[in-house]
Design a protein that fits this description.
alpha/beta; Rossmann fold; five-stranded parallel β-sheet; 15 helices; 9 strands; 11% strand; globular
Length: 354
């Protein structure tokens, strides 16, 4: 079903994305060591990943990095890997069995993260290299933090020596994902390593309209062309929003309710970002809020955003302060060139308190 809000796992449930799925499968078949699957939130990265993994003739393990907190430790990281390997124990039992630091307790895989039998990620990858395996790290930018270099060291080692392993990293905060890899920095463990990137773009208006027509048809609902065009134009080709819109409209037949539901979700996500910044400083959080609102209301250049921020603060603002805010918002894939990448985030930011 096209309007199923969960990530798709079968090609027949996935609208379009033929090229992207084929590109990922081809890269796996060629034994590429690192594949990066990038795109803004709700663009369909996880669906493309799942369909590709289900179709390729290679065993895989999927690690959902969203579960990691900002300052995660080795315990949390290894627990994440343990959960992922446990979910594929039927396929991986033979390769995991006998590895020092790995215990199989019923249907659960335990990884020793400290003590005498401590198992490093480098050692784990070397042992897994006994067979062809894809290790997928969903929302991999969440690996940034105190153990980032340790993880990158292990991936760099596997890149050089573990020819049976392919790593797929997905990320919706594209700037942070590229910053994690940091292949152009001589100090980075992954310096000079090539990765194959598959970037997902948004649907065209025509594709969005066809997606909506097919989705409503699957629900046996008749919807006018005007409504379909209105939804397609408002949500600007972002599949996740189109799916939400299809479901809400099917239940309410109210376009204003469709828009309001999406804006409330986006507002909640923006407020979460602001709360994270508040841990650093209430002043920093307030300035992020102001910059988002300024850009949402049409401040589309450095000078205009700076003027808007200074008017709000009633004081001069250091250029470095604004530079840091703009750079971070771009790394988070919220804005680019003083424009929102997601129109719903723009509408939500207009409502941020002054």
């Amino acid at each position: 079903m096209l309007f199923d809000e969960r990530p798709k796992a079968r090609r027949e449930d996935l609208f379009d994305r033929v090229k992207e799925v084929s590109d990922v499968i081809d890269a796996i078949d060629k034994g590429r060591p690192i594949i990066v699957l990038s795109g803004i939130r709700r663009i369909g990265k996880t669906s493309v990943l799942l369909v590709a993994l289900n179709e390729v003739n290679v065993d895989s393990v999927l690690i959902d990095c969203r579960a990691l907190k900002e300052n995660y430790g080795r315990r949390e990281l290894y627990a994440l890997f343990s959960t992922a390997f446990s979910s594929k124990l039927d396929k991986l039992r033979d390769v995991l069995k006998g590895i020092r630091g790995v215990s199989i307790m019923g249907n659960y895989v335990e990884l020793k993260w400290s003590g005498r039998d401590y198992l490093s990620l480098t050692e784990l990858f070397d042992k897994l290299n006994r067979r062809r395996l894809v290790i997928a790290l969903d929302e991999a930018q969440r690996l940034r933090g105190p153990l980032a270099n340790e993880i990158k060291d292990a991936i760099a080692h596997a890149y050089d020596y573990d020819r049976n392993l392919t790593f797929i990293l997905t990320g919706s905060e594209v700037g942070l994902l590229h910053e994690l890899l940091n292949v152009d920095d001589e100090e980075s463990p992954l310096y000079g390593r090539y990765y194959h990137e598959v970037a997902l773009g948004r649907f065209s208006v025509d594709e969005s309209e066809e997606f909506l027509r097919r989705g409503f048809s699957e629900l046996s609902i008749s919807v006018s062309d005007d409504v379909i065009t209105s939804i397609a134009e408002y949500f600007d080709g972002i599949p996740g929003w189109l799916t939400l819109a299809g479901n809400v409209y099917a239940g309410t037949r109210d376009l204003s309710q469709v828009r309001e539901t999406a804006i409330k979700i986006a507002m909640s996500e923006i407020e979460n970002l602001i709360r994270v910044k508040e841990r650093t400083s209430p002043i920093v959080a307030r300035r992020y809020e102001t910059v988002l609102r300024c850009i949402a209301n049409g401040s589309n250049s450095w000078g205009r955003v700076l003027r808007c921020l200074e008017d709000e603060e009633g004081s001069t603002i250091s250029s470095s302060v604004l530079h840091n805010i703009i750079t971070n918002l771009e790394k988070l894939s919220i804005i680019k060139d003083y424009e929102f990448l997601d129109p719903i985030y723009r509408e939500a930011s207009k409502r941020l308190k002054g």
